Amino acid sequence: MGYLLGIDLGTSSVKALITDAKGTAKGLGQVGYEILTPQMGYAEQDPHVWWSSTIQAVREALHVSGISGNEIDGIGFSGQMHGMVALDKDKKPVGMAVIHLDQRSLREKKQIFDVAEGLLSLELLNQPSAGMMICSLLWMKHEKPKMYDRVEAVMSPKDYIRYKITGIVGTDYSDASATLAFSVKNRCWCKELIRRLELKEDIWPPVYESCQEAGTVSREAARELGISPGTKVVAGGGDCAAQLIGNAVIDEGIVSCNIGTASQLAVVTGSPAFDKEMRCQLWCHSIPGLWIFQGGALNGGNTLSWLKNKVLRDERPFAELDREALDVAAGSEGLIFLPYIAGERTPYNNPKARGVFFGLGLKHGQAHMVRAAMEGVMYNLRLCKNIFDEMGISRKKLISSGGAAKGRCWKQIQADMIDMPVYTTLVQEEACMGAAIMASVGIGNYPDVYSACKETVALSTEVTEPVEENVRRYEEQQEIFCELYKGVERFFSRL
After folding, report:
1. Of 59, 2, 52, which is closest to residue 436 (Cα–Cα)?
2. How far apart are CA 132 and CA 106, in angstroms?
3. 269 bridge partner residues
4. Cys-Cys link to 353, which of 110, 118, 340, 415 (CB 3.0-4.6 A)?
5. 106-116 and 133-143 helices cross at what angle (nearest 10)?
6. How does strand 188-189 pair with strand 182-183?
7. Residue 1: predicted pLDDT
8. 118 CB contacts (<8 Å, ≥6 apart)?
9. pTM, two decimal places
10. Bigger pLDDT: 203 or 262?
11. Which H or E element spans position 410?
């Protein structure tokens, strides 16, 4: 057996991981890029930068691993969800990619909510949020009609990278389900909604299973990447589904607390769970027959990055900040942080929400603010956990992933907030690993994702247990957190 390449197109960087068929990491390449904010509420990225960064990351991974490009047997993908890349008739990007953090389409969000009516609960099983593909496309139609007229295809971010590698336009079920143009119930594009919105009906790409072959490496891409032409390429999945696979979260009732740039509390279900208030989201898993019910929040590790880089201007590694925060008592001695620096999607669907530090006193220092930022993210995810409990959704085991899985303080806060032991895997780049696993299944190394994960993903022996005193403290402060949000909510639209 040869090697697999998993590519994860994230919000702040692209990563390329080379593994062997047993899941052993051989080489990692990573290249960062910026989020462009030309106006308040905008969040864009340049697809050309994504592609050039991907080329660099793949070549770096090959160099680090010492593996030749002709030894790569298959390529899989993971990527930031919800965003929109629009292509013209020549398959060139029509302007910048509008990503999931974008908040410009508030009017379109309301219009879709009104026009969709019963489709939301009967087919889409989700409600619209600014930054979702269909909202961004409708915004383009309204505000940039000449650009809209040029659109011949739309796709999610990672699908653009796969198109650049294969020359074939397509997407997968997990990413398609997060566009809000897709019937999660029927696993097909919701043509009725598309017609009601008078959007183009012929621009929606073919949909593949995540482990299904979706093309091969073209000669041009082979030259740029250093990979052999004809190498098999699978469809891949959205980053939520990919990191779940990379952590072996593949059975009903297993919960993932993933804190990267954004954050998600997600649980695997065997049937389409539906929250009547549509506070949480339901996506198709990259495993046929399974779904992902999640509280997908716009704010996660971005709050800590913002605090570290823009407020504290502290150049030390995040690990040092985490260690200092561990010395602060649970509850940060009364300091509470509303983490909504990028607006919010879950459970408060409020693009205008803002961040707030509340309760500052003379005793509070940097470590208090760092811990309060971590706790603020988890107070929000704890509200999502409460929704799961209201719906009677099974929670059997909690797996932590993302940057928060690397910090002792982050993990303890998760254990105390969710009131479950926190497990982690030995996988370092979960979404990349998930992408590589999908490629391995797609080329026939394994018959399915279950057998692949059993062979490639192992749990760490370290388990973080909840502390009863901390659990009680967070229950008390959760009430203050919720009342604080309700108290200041009316001011957000006035800022």
Report:
1. 2
2. 11
3. 291
4. 340
5. 110
6. antiparallel
7. 66
8. none
9. 0.90
10. 203
11. helix 408-418
Please tell me whether residue 289 adopts helix, strand or coil conformation: coil
The upper half-sphere exposure of residue 134, i.e. CA atoms within 13 Å in the direction of its Cβ, equals 34
Chain centroid, CA 257 distance in Å: 12
481 touches 379 (CB < 8 A): yes
Instruction: Check whether 349 has a pLDDT greater than 90.
Output: no
Q: What residues have CB less than 8 Å from 309, skipping those under 6 apart?
A: none
Nearest residue to 253 (alpha-carbon basis) of 77, 397, 450? 397
Retrieve residue 88's tokens.
Answer: 């013209």
C-alpha torsion 269→127→10→90, nearest 10: 120
What is the identity of the amino acid at 15? K
What is the tens place of the pLDDT at every residue in 436-482? Answer: 999 999 999 999 999 999 999 999 999 999 999 999 999 999 999 99
What size, in residues, is the chain? 495
d(CA 229, CA 247): 31
- The string of DSSP codes covering 331-391 is TGGG-EEEE-BTBB-SSS-BTT--EEEE---TT--HHHHHHHHHHHHHHHHHHHHHHHHHT
Type of residue found at 418: I
d(CA 240, CA 258): 8
Mean pLDDT of the chain: 95
Distance CA 245, CA 456 (A): 10
Short-list 179, 174, 158, CA closest to 233 = 158
- Separation between Cα atoms, residue 347 and residue 127, nearest integer Å: 12
Bridge-based pairing of strands 281-284 and 291-297 is antiparallel
Phi, psi values for residue 315, rounded to 5°: -90, 0
Question: Residue 53 has which token pair?
Answer: 């960064």
CA distance 270 to 251: 8
Task: Kindly state the average pLDDT of the residues 191-217.
Answer: 98
* Distance in angstroms (rounded) separating the CA atoms of residues 180 and 129: 9
Contact 46, 36 (CB under 8 A): yes
